[in-house]
């Protein structure tokens, strides 16, 4: 009998397995565990956004759309960035995508040839490596260090660039790290990017979830490299719309964007008009819901951080943006995966090993605070009690 594996591609057989999925598979045997893994808002999508979608459905807006997306949503995004970056964008600068994940994929698909190198920080969100491999690109990991606040340093980027480098993927505010890019580090990176003429795919899906009076800074704001930056964003985190799968790509270079539009034919053809209308109304509508959620995330950040820092051996990085906290656990003397398993089995708490996000994640855990106060406090309590029993 012929093995089914003979029909599987090399890509399928070698595609990187998510360390996040590994934890969820293991946790299935521990139904009482507190889930501090989910990078998903526990808020409902605001009612006015839901109503917009319902109204579009009632109006029969259920036919095919165009590849780059509903003009109303594209224009809403263009208006947002015209105001945010202080230069004129229109809908030809914007493509709507199936969440931020497809936005990254479409950006890579538009610029990569087989053999091109893509610089990916380490640690970083999990999808970038697999998407690069899918397109025949070569992932090149560049380390991020806690001593630099997990901000990519220009000299580390410079060292990683070769004649085959085509692009860098950069994520700030960062999942899993909780770090935010400041202008000084951004301008230093821009000099290297301009010198070597490489593209930037800037994943900015957490731009509105930022704390302590900080302001979001994008590499696309830097005039000297504005035509080399593709901003990927999403409504998932900002408006608690994860299941809606609405994202977008914004690029100053309209010719590049025009070529990206046609690539949607190969992936999804088009997105639903009724969800895109709701997306347009989310961006154009009242933003007090966004600020309310941000304030609640900031308070929950403090709940988690203040609890964890009192546990001997746990050294949390104080999250600057996103709803992820990265925790140094090197004092415990075991691997991140082993300690994550210990917390599941012995404390009944789900966490993610830092190595799910790259080799530089060894010695760290990620915990998300997009959760109820009760779950955060109970999770911290369980971890504290286990560590006290365990010693370190």
UniProtKB/TrEMBL annotation:
<protein>
    <recommendedName>
        <fullName>Aminotransferase</fullName>
        <ecNumber>2.6.1.-</ecNumber>
    </recommendedName>
</protein>
<dbReference type="InterPro" id="IPR004838">
    <property type="entry name" value="NHTrfase_class1_PyrdxlP-BS"/>
</dbReference>
<comment type="similarity">
    <text>Belongs to the class-I pyridoxal-phosphate-dependent aminotransferase family.</text>
</comment>
<dbReference type="Pfam" id="PF00155">
    <property type="entry name" value="Aminotran_1_2"/>
</dbReference>
<dbReference type="GO" id="GO:0008483">
    <property type="term" value="F:transaminase activity"/>
</dbReference>
<dbReference type="InterPro" id="IPR050596">
    <property type="entry name" value="AspAT/PAT-like"/>
</dbReference>
<dbReference type="InterPro" id="IPR015422">
    <property type="entry name" value="PyrdxlP-dep_Trfase_small"/>
</dbReference>
<dbReference type="InterPro" id="IPR015424">
    <property type="entry name" value="PyrdxlP-dep_Trfase"/>
</dbReference>
<keyword id="KW-0032">Aminotransferase</keyword>
<feature type="domain" description="Aminotransferase class I/classII large">
    <location>
        <begin position="33"/>
        <end position="383"/>
    </location>
</feature>
<keyword id="KW-0663">Pyridoxal phosphate</keyword>
<dbReference type="InterPro" id="IPR015421">
    <property type="entry name" value="PyrdxlP-dep_Trfase_major"/>
</dbReference>
<keyword id="KW-0808">Transferase</keyword>
<dbReference type="InterPro" id="IPR004839">
    <property type="entry name" value="Aminotransferase_I/II_large"/>
</dbReference>
<dbReference type="GO" id="GO:0030170">
    <property type="term" value="F:pyridoxal phosphate binding"/>
</dbReference>
<dbReference type="GO" id="GO:0006520">
    <property type="term" value="P:amino acid metabolic process"/>
</dbReference>
């Amino acid at each position: 009998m012929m093995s089914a594996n003979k029909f599987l591609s090399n890509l399928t057989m070698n595609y990187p397995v998510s360390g996040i999925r590994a934890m969820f598979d293991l946790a299935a045997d521990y139904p009482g565990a507190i889930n501090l893994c989910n990078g998903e808002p526990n808020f409902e999508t605001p009612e006015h956004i839901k109503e917009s979608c319902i109204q579009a459905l009632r109006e029969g807006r259920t036919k095919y759309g165009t590849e780059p997306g509903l003009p109303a949503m594209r224009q809403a995004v263009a208006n947002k960035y015209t105001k945010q970056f202080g230069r004129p964008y229109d809908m030809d600068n914007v493509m709507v995508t199936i969440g931020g994940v497809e936005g990254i994929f479409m950006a890579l698909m538009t610029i990569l040839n087989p053999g091109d190198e893509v610089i990916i920080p380490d640690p970083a969100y999990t999808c970038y490596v697999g998407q690069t491999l899918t397109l025949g690109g070569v992932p090149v990991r560049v380390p991020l260090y806690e001593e630099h606040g997990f901000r990519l340093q220009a000299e580390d980027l410079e060292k990683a660039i070769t004649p085959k480098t085509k692009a860098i993927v950069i994520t700030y505010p960062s999942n899993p790290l909780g770090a935010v890019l400041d202008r000084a580090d951004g301008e230093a990176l821009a000099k290297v990017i301009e010198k070597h003429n490489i593209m930037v795919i800037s994943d900015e899906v957490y731009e509105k979830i930022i704390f302590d009076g900080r302001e979001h800074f994008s590499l696309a704001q830097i005039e000297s490299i504005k035509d080399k930056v593709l901003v990927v964003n999403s409504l998932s985190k900002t408006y608690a719309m994860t299941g809606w799968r609405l994202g977008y790509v914004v690029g100053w270079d309209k010719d590049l964007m025009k070529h990206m539009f046609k690539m949607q034919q190969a992936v999804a053809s088009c997105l639903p008009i009724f969800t895109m209308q709701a997306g347009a109304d989310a961006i154009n509508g009242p933003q007090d819901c966004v600020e309310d959620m941000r304030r609640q995330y900031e308070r929950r950040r403090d709940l988690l951080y203040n609890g964890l820092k009192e546990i001997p051996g746990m050294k949390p990085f104080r999250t600057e943006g996103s709803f992820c906290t990265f925790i140094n656990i090197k004092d415990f003397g075991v691997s991140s995966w082993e300690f994550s398993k210990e917390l599941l089995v012995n404390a009944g708490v789900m966490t993610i090993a830092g190595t799910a996000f790259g080799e530089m994640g060894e010695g760290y855990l990620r915990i998300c605070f997009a959760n109820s106060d009760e779950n955060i406090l109970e999770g911290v309590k369980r971890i504290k009690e286990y560590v006290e029993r365990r010693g370190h």
